[in-house]
Structure formats: structure tokens, C-alpha cells
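hey m, so remember when u said the C-alpha cells were messed up on ur end? i reran from scratch. heres the input so u can diff it against urs
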Amino acid sequence: MQTVCDRANMVSRRSKQYHHACQLLRVSQYLKTPFFLPCVIEDFNDDEVMLSPLHLQHLKRSQRHITYSSLLLSDKPSVCCLFVLYVLLMLSCV
């Protein structure tokens, strides 16, 4: 009986792994083409910017942070420029 249960669990686990791999493949194909994702700058500091994607409100706060180093910028953007952009975006929402 234990062998049958172990076998059933293994088959179930393999099925879930295959389904997960298929989902990752679909997402990777989608990410190969450029797309526009409207966002609002929620907050920023010297190291990172926190975006609030309008269509992805379910994201956790930690998933909305983007460090400047991950953007492959030659120079860190000045906080002054980000603040101006932040103010303009906030004014456009009013």
C-alpha cells in the first residue's frame, strides 16, 4: 500500500512540476516581446524606486521595488528628476 501511495504522490508531483514549467515557458515567451506597463511612482529614494502598476495591484510591496542597479543605467538618476516626475504624475491623476 505504501508503494502505491508513494507512486501516486510522485506522479502527482511530476504533473504539478510539468504544469509549472509550462506556465514559465508561456511567461518567458510573453516577456520576449516589448510591452507597455503603465505604472505610477509610489515612492523613491537614493537606491530604488517603488512602482505601482495599475493592472497589478495584487503585487506585494516588496515585489514593486526596482533598484537603479538592476536598470543597467550608466549613472544613478538624480532624486530631483524623480521628484519632478513624481509630482507630474500625481498632478495628472487629480
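this time it looks ok to me. DSSP finds two helices and three strands in the chain. if urs says something different then somethings off w ur setup not the seq
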